[in-house]
Structure prediction request, 377 residues.
Amino acid sequence: MNIIYFIHDLHTIGGIERVTVNKANWLVQQGHTVSIVTTDQNSKKLAFNLSGKVKLIDLGLNYKSSRGKNWFCKAIKLIKNHYCHRIKLEKVLHDLSPDIVISTFGPEMGILADMQLKCPKILEFHSAIVQFHQMKNAKGIRGIINRINYNSIYKNISKFDRFVILSEHELNVWALHNAIAIPNACYMNVNISYNSNSKTVIAVGRLSKEKDFSTLLDVWKIVQSDIDGWNLKIYGDGPEHSSLAYKIESLNLSGSVELMGTCHDMEKEYASASVFCMTSHYEGQPMVLIEALTCGVPSVVFETDGRMKKLSNNGTLCFVIQPRDKNEMALRLIELMNNRDLRIEMSKRARNISDIFNQYVIMHQWEHLFKTLVAEQ
Prediction:
């Protein structure tokens, strides 16, 4: 089967990029033909290892070059890009003659939605619906534009043969006729040994407001008043880096907290950690938590709309804390730090998550979907 993925780029270290590369690599191993079409790659180094069997095509549109410009410049750039994007996309589709095309909710979505293709169209959404709904909350001219975009996007979603989201919880909220749930697979090595002697707590994610690492620093301040000799490492980069660095200094946490930046080998970092912590306001599917549990790292996380409790099998795989309860999260972290036997027991239980997000099970769901759609066409 000939499959095309559309995505912004593959040089960014992010969840969508990693998942897309993993799926493409798996599919070509099964004998499928896979192409990934980007808009903003620009010959930059790939963030993840992509099989040489996957064809990579960049359209050179540079959508991200308008960031930081005024609204007028952005509008002109968007109109020009949209026109060029459609022409280049039509050529790619003509040249490759795909059996399946897949949008990752990027700027290609609106173009594909309005195109009458001979092959099925799939749209993927990798976040939580709350992020999509936040578009409507802005005020002023931005709010008006966002609400227009929101309504337009909702109409475009219905034009795809399937809209794939990450969980049954999200499926019920979206309530769309073409929506189905397929979670992302975890590709971490389940045989990584847990280091129960480590005194490192790690957190992983984009340094942005929704991940709320600021609250994690407040929690760590409480922990530090009770525990000595432990350190916190935060992996990731993003717009909140400067404010987090300032807060680390202002809370006198420089001796125990470090912003590690992006990392290309998280398996190694999970293997050297004793505890994982997550403070996100919302998650579509918390891949970093799933990775940590797969690697057997005991975890403490804030609840997000009931999905963490469900994911953790009612809290048996990790500690699930009520949202923003800093004191309770600190107490659970301290409990784990003080009890090596508890950490070892939780590590054993955590690995059960790998059965749920097994790549073979999940990728066979994708192959079944492809075959079903082609048969329906």
